[in-house]
Design brief:
heterodimer; A: five-stranded antiparallel beta sheet; about 20% helix; B: about 140 residues; Thiol Ester Dehydrase, Chain A; five-stranded antiparallel beta sheet; 5 strands
């Protein structure tokens, strides 16, 4: 991917859509974390990784393709910034919208190898239009 | 419960052993095609002999620590970065310390430094903002 192609990604909007978290999904997700089930229809906070991505009408595979990731070891996680304005609950249909917000190309002084920072942000709103959560995920794509 | 103040240590939370079976279930839930989480053949060219835990699972151990301390709906923000891969079989301990307290929107919020440790190595570091019980804060 050229530097120009990389920077053209900024502003790319995901299709958007809605996403409802089912009980079975939340149960399995919570179990994977080693926590006890939360109860009261509360969704484990870690759902803010995959639910926004899927709800925005994209996927991890689509994101890999968009940023030109190729092969094992090509994608690294720099970090996450996740904000919770209200607890996520099972059975609620959330509206989900997002876009690519930042990119940056870096070249190693030692090896000359290229690594691109790829940042996207997604918001979830409840059926009343109230902002429920916002994520900003930072990935690093090794070329 | 003792008082919460700046400097209070959050009770730690331990994942005794990162389980590759859980990574497989997680990959299915996430619809994550990245084979380093479930295929040993994919990680060998990278110089590893164990599959790599998903980043969200690493963060979940920190979230579990916070929820075990202040309840399932206490988290307002998680801002973390990942410093090194976590592998199947690793033992991890989530730890944290309160660095600030303030009233926001009618609730008492604590800013906390958080980290996830493998032995004496931090594999995740960051900050969190959580709602804390005013009855036990100063």
């Amino acid at each position: 991917m050229s530097d120009a192609d990389l920077h053209a990604l900024v502003g790319h909007r995901f299709p958007g859509g809605t996403r409802t978290i089912e009980h079975w999904e939340n149960w399995l997700l919570t179990d994977c974390t080693g926590a006890d089930q939360l109860g009261d229809d509360l969704v484990h906070p870690i759902a803010l990784f995959h639910v926004p991505i899927q709800g925005a009408g994209t996927s991890i595979a689509d994101l890999f393709e968009l940023c030109g990731a190729q092969g094992a070891g090509s994608v690294g996680l720099d970090g996450y910034d996740w904000e919770y304005f209200a607890p996520l609950r099972e059975g609620v249909e959330y509206r989900v919208e997002g876009s690519v917000t930042e990119v940056e190309r870096t070249v190693s002084d030692q090896t000359g190898r290229i690594a691109d920072r790829f940042v996207y942000a997604i918001e979830m709103t409840d059926p009343d239009g109230v902002l429920t959560a916002r994520i900003t995920n930072h990935w690093r794509i090794r070329r | 419960m003792s008082a919460i103040e700046v400097g209070t240590a959050i009770p730690s939370w331990t994942m005794e052993r990162v389980d590759p079976q859980r990574m497989k279930t997680m990959a299915a839930i996430l619809r994550d095609p990245y084979e380093v989480h479930w295929d040993h053949e994919a990680v060998r060219p990278l110089g590893f002999d164990r599959v790599i835990n998903q980043g969200p699972l690493n963060l979940s151990y920190v979230a579990n620590m916070l929820m075990a301390w202040q309840g399932a709906s206490c988290i307002r923000r998680l801002n973390v970065r990942f410093t090194t891969p976590v592998f199947e079989g690793d033992q991890l301990v989530a730890r944290g310390t309160v660095t600030g307290l303030e009233q926001v929107d009618g609730e008492l919020r604590a800013t906390c430094d958080v980290h996830l440790d493998r032995g004496d190595e931090a594999v995740l570091v960051g900050t969190s903002i959580i709602v804390v019980d005013e009855a036990v804060s100063q």
